Amino acid sequence: MSPFIARPEHGVVWITGASSGIGRALALKLAEEGYKVAVTARSHEMLLALQAEASALAGSIVVLDGDVTNSEDMEHTVAAIEYQHGPVALVVLNAGIYLPARGEDLNHEVFERSFAVNLHGVVNCLVPAVRHMRARGYGQIAFVSSLAGYSGLPGTAAYGASKAAIINMAESLKFELDRMGIHVQLVTPGYVDTPLTAQNTFKMPDMVSAQQAADAIAAGLKSSTFDISFPKRMVYRAKLMRFLPYSLYFRVLRYFLRSGRKRRAVGTPVTPHPAE
C-alpha cells in the first residue's frame, strides 16, 4: 500500500517552532501551495506577523500559541486544531534549540533544556497527534532532527544526543505507524541560515538558506521517502562518518579538528557540527 501523503483537501498541516527559521519558511511555502497551516511557538507576535505575511497566499496560516515542553498544552493544541480548523493530516515536529555542551563546562541546565525541547517536546506533540491520526486511519508525521544526530561531535553532547534520539525514535516508530496508515519521515538538515546558527562565530560549510531548506522539505513531504536530508555533500560525509569503526572515526575527527585549529589561526574558523 502506498504511504499517505497529505494534500490540502485532507486537512491541516501543524508545524511546531514556526516563529522563525525553517519552521517559518516551511509554513509560508506550504501556505503558498494551498495548505491550511496551523503554527505554534512561544512568540505570539512573531506568529501573528507570519500569519499576516501569508494573507495573500492560496492557503492560510492559523496561530495557536503553545509551549512544546508542556504536555497538557500540546494536548489542548491538537484538540483545538481538530475542533476549530479540521483534521490534522500532517505534523512537522520542528521545534528545537541548540545549546553547546563541552566537557570542560558540563552542567545540568544545558542537558535539561535541550532534552525538554528537542526530545520531550517532540513526544508531547507526537502522542496526541498519533491518537487522532490512528482514529482516522491516516496521517503523516515528519520528525526534524539534524546531521549532528548521526555521530558524536565536540560541543554537541546535549544537542547531538537529543537529535540522535529523534532519529532512533523515527526509525523505530515507522514500523508500527506504517501499519496504522501514518506515513513517517525523518528530516536531517545540515547548516541552515537561521537564528540558531546566527549565534555561531565560525564559518559553516555548505550552508543553505531557510528558504532552500523549506523547498527541500516541502518536496520531500510530497514523496514516499523516509529520509529527507540536505545538503547532499554534507549528508554523504556525515553518513560515511557514522559507519566508520571507532578507531578510524576518532582518528578522522582529530584530523579535521587539527585542520580547523590551523584555519582558525589564519582567521577562518570552523566547527565540526551542524545545527538547524
From TrEMBL:
Keywords recorded for this protein, A-Z: Oxidoreductase
One of the Pfam families matching this protein, by short name: adh_short
Signal sequence segment: none
Residue ranges that the Swiss-Prot or TrEMBL entry lists as coiled coil: none
Gene Ontology molecular function: oxidoreductase activity
InterPro entries: KR_dom, NAD(P)-bd_dom_sf, SDR_fam
SMART domains registered for this protein in UniProt: PKS_KR
Domain Ketoreductase residues, every copy: 11-190
Source organism superkingdom: Bacteria
GO cellular component: membrane
Alphabetical list of PANTHER family matching this protein: DEHYDROGENASE/REDUCTASE SDR FAMILY MEMBER 7B, DEHYDROGENASE_REDUCTASE SDR FAMILY MEMBER 7B
Family recorded in the similarity comment: Belongs to the short-chain dehydrogenases/reductases (SDR) family.
Entry protein name: NAD(P)-dependent dehydrogenase (Short-subunit alcohol dehydrogenase family)
The organism of origin for this protein: Rhizobium lusitanum
